Amino acid sequence: NAGVTQTPKFQVLKTGQSMTLQCAQDMNHNSMYWYRQDPGMGLRLIYYSASEGTTDKGEVPNGYNVSRLNKREFSLRLESAAPSQTSVYFCASTLVGTSGLLNTGELFFGEGSRLTVL
Amino acid sequence: GENVEQHPSTLSVQEGDSAVIKCTYSDSASNYFPWYKQELGKGPQLIIDIRSNVGEKKDQRIAVTLNKTAKHFSLHITETQPEDSAVYFCAVNFNKFYFGSGTKLNVKP
Q: Which DSSP symbol is given to A73?
């Protein structure tokens, strides 16, 4: 049982290049998330997918696109990388909780993808 | 969206002492308040959580308290050990999870 798997773990890009971060979970979770982590700023939500076929913007979606390919996979694409996108990116998943409409489930995180844009 | 403030940003304690980290949030509809621990080079992991119908929850050396009226909750770690050294994040749910900015805890042996 691998949990949440992210690839690649490290990547260096030049400004303007594009790339896709891949994420897959094997826990049959419904919801998947992409966060970025910057020093002193905690984890900021980029995009979110409540279920297969749906995506929603988070706090910092500009410069990113996402695809929920199927229930297992949720990818994050940088179309034209900028130095401000240098960060550590985390994918997470959760089995949505049942407390009304609010999500009360545990988030399971991948190990992160460290991206540097020169 | 939700506004989550976490304090302090860094905390240094002597082994065996207690550590307290506090978070405040803005949306009174939030009803689930987890705490995550992140070790160096790894993703965050859930260590304890509390739901809005409970004021306090304890799990061995860690506890979380919730004051829903004041919209704040705290993580308490007693008898700290060097392996408690990590970054701790609070989170609040409001259809998605919003995280605090993190507290780097250093436990000195």
A: B
